[in-house]
């Protein structure tokens, strides 16, 4: 993983840093880059040669009729140079296309992989709409930056250098000085105004991301909006963000008009001065009509891309602004990392041990206070307690989504902080309370448990989860789309898909995180029977809300405010007449009232 520097410092230095970061991606195909640059230079030499040939054509045709000779060779040469400039440019684009697209692909993949290495804390706090918009704009910005820099800025600078050198060598220093003076003034003015406009562009991006984030969040919570009849409220919130974007967009558009007018004025003044100077030379007999035509052609050829250079510079600044936000994602610190000497987890029996675990999501609030628990290999330990007691935090720590603040977590006497995250998570399977499915087919979602599994293994997993008959009864069978987050399936169907993909993964350690609390009583009993079946011979951590689902557990731990206050078998805890007994009595009373 490359390290991308921080964004502190002047905007200019950040822009150069961004360009330097992209160079290694381009240099992967160094020979393509060299060949493309050769074609680029060839195209510019052809373009610069056109006015010179045009001068000789005019001078030949400007002779008295008796001496008039049609310069066919020059005319053919003019046409060939025109063709060569286009062909060289097209060949340059063909050769360089793979370089650009590979750079976009590699950076995009690096960002995607980096986001998956970030902690759960980042993903709980992130705004999905804003992040996806930043990635999209950043990827487009990379393509735009490469194209504009190498195919617009560099060719224009080469052409300016060639034209200035020809004017200096063939005429006098005044023509070259005027040309350079106009170019310098033009570039300085463009950069000054564009730097101001870049700030407006950043404001537009902020408002755009904010509005997009809000829109996606609202649409993802479509049902909640409908439940409370808050369509107008959501529209007003969205419009408030769009209003801020509109103000920034208007300022951005008006400033563009100011820049265009200033650029046009500089070019007009420069061309007028050059033509006056050339006309005076023709009148004095120092220059030919062909020289005047050549100078005029040089100016037109040079100022057309120079005028476009203003647009290009704005696009480059816009691209750099967009890429800047993309690289900020790559700068996000990875909270959980493998140690340099981390080794794969060696599974023997799958025993789990929490040793005086202390943990808090932030320094101001401790969630777990010295938690000690042991799950013998192949046994089932249940954790119960009221909401906020720290039950789900236990499963997140076992997966190492966070590192403990104090104490340690061990699997077969191996500290999970010393083994690779991939091997740790490969050994654990989970059936969560809220099963989230990919917006894809049922087959894809079950196969996700082990993507390299054969179709026969996937079918067998579905049979073990008692969902095979349901799948085969659907009109589209295994190809049935489950919808966004699996919304086209019922709660029980989603849970069976979750069970099937966990069976397919075949983990040694199983976590059942309130896996049936969102289901109705009848479905819950059916799913519970299936969960007991897959938990056999596996080390199982069951996090439960309904105590009736864990009466057969080998041990039950009762948590309150991050501490284990009771532990024992179901009958032992009832006999103790403590917290567990009170919770049991309360739930039994609630069950009678239903």
Question: Care to describe what's here?
Answer:
This protein has 594 residues and is an alpha/beta fold. It folds into 3 domains: 11-331, ABC transporter type 1, transmembrane domain (ABC transporter transmembrane region fold), CATH 1.20.1560.10; 338-427 and 509-594, 3-Layer(aba) Sandwich (Rossmann fold), CATH 3.40.50; 436-506, P-loop containing nucleotide triphosphate hydrolases (Rossmann fold). It is 64% helix and 10% strand. It is built from 18 helices and 10 strands. It has helices at residues 11-26, 30-61, 72-117, 120-125, 128-170, 173-220, 222-227, 231-283, 289-331, 391-398, 421-426, 442-447, 455-464, 468-473, 491-505, 521-535, 570-576, 579-593, and strands at 352-359, 368-375, 380-385, 406-411, 414-415, 428-431, 509-513, 539-544, 555-560, 563-568. The strands form 2 sheets. A 6-stranded mixed β-sheet has the order 6-7-8-3-9-10, with helices on both faces. A 4-stranded antiparallel β-sheet has the order 2-1-4-5, with helices on one face. Helix 16 links the parallel strand 7 and strand 8 (539-544). Helix 2 crosses helix 5 (128-170) and helix 6 (173-220) packs antiparallel against helix 8. It starts with 10 loop residues before the first helix and ends with a helix. The relative contact order is 0.08. The model is unreliable at 1-11 (pLDDT under 50).
């Amino acid at each position: 993983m490359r390290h991308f520097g921080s964004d502190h410092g002047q905007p200019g230095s950040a822009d150069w840093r961004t360009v330097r970061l992209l160079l290694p991606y381009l240099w992967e195909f160094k020979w393509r880059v060299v060949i493309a640059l050769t074609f680029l230079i060839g195209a510019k030499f052809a373009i610069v040669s056109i006015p010179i040939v045009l001068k000789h054509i005019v001078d030949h045709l400007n002779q008295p009729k008796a001496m008039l000779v049609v310069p066919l060779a020059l005319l053919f040469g003019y046409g060939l140079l025109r063709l060569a400039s286009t062909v060289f440019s097209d060949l340059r684009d063909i050769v360089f296309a793979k370089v650009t697209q590979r750079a976009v692909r590699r950076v995009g993949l690096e960002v995607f992989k980096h986001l998956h290495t970030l902690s759960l804390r980042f993903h709980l706090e992130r705004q999905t709409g804003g992040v996806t918009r930043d990635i999209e704009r950043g990827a487009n910005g990379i393509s735009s930056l490469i194209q504009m820099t190498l195919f617009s800025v560099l060719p224009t600078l080469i052409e300016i250098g060639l034209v200035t050198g020809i004017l200096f060598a063939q005429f006098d220093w005044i023509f070259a000085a005027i040309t350079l003076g106009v170019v310098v003034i033009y570039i300085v003015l463009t950069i000054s105004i564009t730097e101001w406009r870049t700030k407006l562009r950043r404001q537009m991006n902020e408002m755009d991301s904010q509005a997009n984030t809000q829109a996606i969040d609202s649409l993802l919570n479509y049902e909640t909006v409908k439940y409370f009849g808050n369509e107008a409220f959501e529209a007003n919130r969205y419009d408030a963000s769009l209003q801020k974007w509109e103000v920034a967009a208007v300022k951005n558009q008006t400033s563009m008009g100011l820049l265009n007018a200033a650029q046009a004025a500089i070019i007009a003044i420069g061309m007028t001065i050059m033509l006056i100077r050339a006309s005076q030379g023709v009148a004095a007999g120092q220059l030919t009509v062909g020289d005047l035509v050549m100078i005029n052609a040089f100016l037109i050829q040079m100022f057309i891309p120079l005028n476009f250079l203003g647009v290009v510079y704005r696009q480059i600044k816009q691209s750099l602004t967009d890429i800047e936000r993309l690289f900020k994602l790559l700068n996000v610190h990875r909270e959980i990392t493998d140690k340099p000497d981390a080794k794969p987890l060696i599974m023997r029996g799958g025993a789990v041990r929490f040793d005086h675990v202390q943990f808090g999501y932030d320094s101001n609030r401790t969630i777990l206070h010295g938690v000690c628990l042991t799950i013998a290999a192949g046994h089932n330990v249940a954790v119960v307690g009221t909401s906020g007691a720290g039950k789900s935090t236990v499963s997140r720590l076992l997966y190492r989504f966070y590192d403990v603040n104090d104490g340690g977590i061990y699997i077969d006497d191996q500290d999970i902080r010393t083994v690779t995250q991939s091997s740790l998570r490969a050994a654990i399977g989970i059936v969560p309370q809220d099963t989230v499915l990919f917006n894809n087919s049922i087959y894809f979602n079950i196969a996700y448990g082990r993507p390299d599994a054969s179709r026969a293994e996937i079918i067998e997993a579905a049979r073990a989860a008692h969902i095979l008959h349901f799948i085969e009864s659907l009109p589209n069978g295994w190809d049935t789309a489950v919808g966004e987050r699996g919304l086209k399936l019922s709660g029980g169907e989603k849970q069976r898909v979750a069970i099937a993909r966990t069976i397919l993964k075949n983990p040694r350690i199983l976590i059942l995180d309130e896996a049936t609390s969102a289901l109705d009583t009848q479905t819950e009993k059916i799913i519970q029977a299936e969960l007991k079946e897959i938990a056999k011979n596996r080390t199982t951590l069951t996090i439960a809300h309904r105590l009736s689902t864990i009466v057969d557990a080998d041990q039950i731990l009762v948590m309150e405010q991050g501490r284990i206050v009771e532990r024992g078998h179901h009958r032992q805890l009832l006999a103790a007449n403590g917290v567990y007994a009170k919770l049991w009595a309360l739930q039994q009373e609630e069950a009678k009232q239903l």
